[in-house]
Amino acid sequence: MLAAEAAWALGDLSLHEESAVVPACRRLLDRHPGCGPLWWVAARILTAGDAVEEAERCADLLESDPTSDLLREDLAGERRAVRHGGVGDVASADVVVVGVDAMGPGGLVIDADDLGVMESARVLEVPVWAEAGVGRMLPPRLWEALVHRLEAAHVPRSGCVVSLEGIDKVAGPTGVQSVPVALAGSDCPEPGELLARW
Questions:
Q1: Three-state DSSP class for residue 155
Q2: Structural domain boundaries of the chain?
Q3: Which of 64, 125, 132, 164 is the most buried (most CB within 10 A)?
């Protein structure tokens, strides 16, 4: 919801004070460096022919994200999925689902609380699926900028970067896919205004 609210605010700002949009995007990313959807919103608004229309489109896409429903459909039936828990929970699961704040060619950003369940799944060889909804899949240069900004930030609970090793599938707004297919499906541009500072 943070990114959807930011989209509405940036759209309004671009309508009334266009020169303030780039600084506003940078300030948002300074405060929330690990939030992929914020990077996605900022990148799309900064490269759009009509920033107001693009802001509305971004907010609508975020608010109607079908990822959770598509993931549920794919897991329906005999598969037992876990998101949290101890080693026993992971050992009895068919798949571990980890929520992703951002994802790119070099890894993914997850909540620090999910590190344990992800490590347990890797040790026990339980498949791990990343749930990466709208705006979370970033292209290479934007992913690199996010990682640099996150490493430089001193923002509590801003997420942990982990490798893609052990990620079997990615659930996104177009369904459950392999990691390479999901990475190739990023719909996010790479504006220089977001890369120049990092």
A1: coil
A2: 2-63, 67-195
A3: 132
* CA nearest to 37, candidates 7, 80, 77: 7
Which residues lie below 8 Å from residue 100, measured CB to CB, with a gap of 6+? Answer: 36, 108, 109, 110, 130, 131, 132, 136
pLDDT, one tens digit per residue, over 33-51 is: 999 999 999 999 999 999 9
How far apart CA 11 and CA 163 sit, in angstroms, is: 34
Handedness of CA 126, 127, 131, 137 (dihedral sign): positive
The pTM of this model reads 0.92
Are 128 and 122 in contact, with CB atoms under 8 Å apart?
yes
Select from 122, 130, 113 the least CA-distant residue to 90: 122
User: How far is residue 97's CA from residue 81's CA, in Å, rounded to a whole number?
Assistant: 7
CATH 1.20.1300.10 fits 67-195, yes or no: no
CA distances from 136 to 38, 147, 184 (A): 9, 13, 13
